[in-house]
Amino acid sequence: MIKLTLPERPIELTDEEECALVDEYKRNKTPVWKKKYIVDKILEMSNYKCAFSEQKLNTESAYAEVEHFKCKEKYIEEVVHWGNLLPICKKCNTSKGDWDVEQDHIVNPLVDDPKDYLYVKAFRFYKKNSIGENTIDAVSLNSREHFVSPRSKIGFEIADSLDDNWDRLQKADTKRQKVNVINRIKGILRNCGPENIYSAVLSTYVLYEIETYNEIEEFLKKNDLWDEELEDIKKNLLFCSLPAPSVK
């Protein structure tokens, strides 16, 4: 889970339209939140990922659903309220159900910074406080089958790729060889950034749980090979990461 920024409300969702859609839902329980202009906007907001698990959506294994942060059963007036709708995967949506976030607070990625409530270690989420604990429970962030196993598989693949390219970088004899390896390393690191699947978990793993990244960064800086692009990539990883409280 990473912090998300709410975009402007779709132009189609005027105050009048919102009232009309709420009335329609009250009359016949039509899923009025499935309007294409709503779904498209919230998917773009999250880079087509679940707002909680960061699983990629609209794939064969994870179809996008619309989550009502305040559940529609108890907060009918907010069924299409802009800021109450999030893209979500089926596992998180089913797990959360009619959880009342006003009674038992959980992290709202549109409002809260997950860093204040959660940290990641060994591909699992851990609580920093009761809100973090509620969040993990509400959306099953540590489901082994759905999330922990896929996250660890990708993480180990990234670690292997970084190790291989770290070896190549140290053996590179020419500037061209070094540039080619550095470009591959940049690509690997970008795959842990905010536009990609499981970015909170993978960025934390790369920055804080394996030594290879730090060794590469130290080598590149020592040899004047660290550039602005790498600095921007690191900033993105730091933004996504959820390090343990003891990690600085």
Quick overview:
Helices cover 48% and strands 6% of the residues. The chain contains 9 helices and 4 strands; from the N terminus they run H-H-E-E-H-E-E-H-H-H-H-H-H.
Secondary structure layout:
Blueprint: H1 15-28, H2 36-45, E1 65-68, E2 85-88, H3 90-96, E3 118-121, E4 124-127, H4 130-138, H5 144-171, H6 175-190, H7 199-209, H8 212-222, H9 228-240
Antiparallel strand pairs: 1-2, 3-4
Task: Explain what the structure shows.
By secondary structure, the chain is mainly alpha-helical. The protein folds into two domains: about 15-105, 3-Layer(aba) Sandwich (His-Me finger endonuclease fold), CATH 3.40.1800; about 145-240. The chain is built from nine helices and four strands. The strands form two sheets. Strands 1-2 form a two-stranded antiparallel sheet. A two-stranded antiparallel ribbon has the order 3-4. Strand 3 and strand 4 (about 125) form a beta hairpin. The longest helix has 28 residues, at about 145-170. The protein is elongated. The chain starts with 14 loop residues before the first helix and ends in an 8-residue tail after the last helix. The relative contact order is 0.11. The model has no long low-confidence stretch (mean pLDDT about 95).
Number of helices: 9
Q: Count every beta strand, where a strand is a DSSP E run of 2 or more residues.
A: 4
Unreliable residue stretches: none
Strand order of the largest sheet: 1-2
Taking Cα atoms only, what radius of gyration do you get, to the nearest Å? 20 Å
Shape: elongated
Distance between the termini: 20 Å
Beta-strand percentage?
A: 5-15%
- Biggest pleated-sheet summary: 2 strands, antiparallel
Percent helix range: 40-55%
Instruction: Return the structural class.
Output: mainly alpha
- Average pLDDT figure: 95
Order of helices and strands: HHEEHEEHHHHHH
